[in-house]
Recover the amino acids of this structure.
């Protein structure tokens, strides 16, 4: 705009193509956009304002930038992919255990229920003595209620009912109550 003020606005259009090999990659890509073809979408709106306040031996140029998402992203699912890689590369480490738990949580929050159920099973099978086993069992119980797998949901809630965390125990008891109410 002037020799001291610059303004920029951007709304980029991005074309991407997924190159993974189905069933042989680290990341759970099961959305329709991951079909090996190019897909385009507008990215986030960006606004920048730059001002040259001082010039000379000492220069001061404050700036302001804002990025505004224009649609919802599957960022939880992308996080799950990163966690899956950690589990694969360091399964016997404390970081691998944490990543296994958070992968399952991220998939559940991304509403990828079938994958979340499998991830919680993997976590509980791989780390049965984890301090997060009760929490994982309760979360898995709720997913199993949604999937109408009531017997296993009940077993998961019973396992979580002995957790030292009161919030986990409350969730487990609420799940058991929901199952009991279903049979009345």
């Amino acid at each position: 705009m002037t020799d001291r003020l610059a303004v920029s606005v951007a709304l980029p259009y991005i074309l991407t193509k997924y190159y993974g090999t189905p069933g042989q990659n680290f990341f759970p890509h099961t959305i329709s956009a991951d079909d090996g073809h190019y897909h385009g979408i507008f990215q986030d709106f960006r606004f920048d304002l730059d001002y040259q306040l001082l010039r000379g031996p000492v220069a001061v140029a404050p700036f302001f930038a804002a990025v505004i998402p224009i649609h919802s992203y599957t960022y939880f699912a992308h996080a799950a992919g990163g966690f899956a890689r950690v589990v694969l590369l360091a399964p016997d480490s404390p970081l691998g255990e944490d990543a296994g738990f958070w992968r399952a949580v991220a998939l559940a929050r991304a509403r990828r229920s079938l994958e979340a159920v499998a991830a919680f099973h993997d976590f509980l099978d791989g780390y049965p003595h984890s301090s997060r086993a009760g929490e994982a069992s309760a979360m898995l119980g709720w997913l199993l209620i949604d999937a109408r797998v009531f017997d296993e949901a009940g077993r998961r809630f019973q396992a979580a009912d002995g957790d030292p965390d009161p919030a986990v125990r409350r969730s487990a008891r609420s799940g058991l109550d929901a199952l009991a109410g279903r049979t009345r």
About this structure: Residues 75-182 form a domain with the Serine Threonine Protein Phosphatase 5, Tetratricopeptide repeat fold (CATH 1.25.40.10).
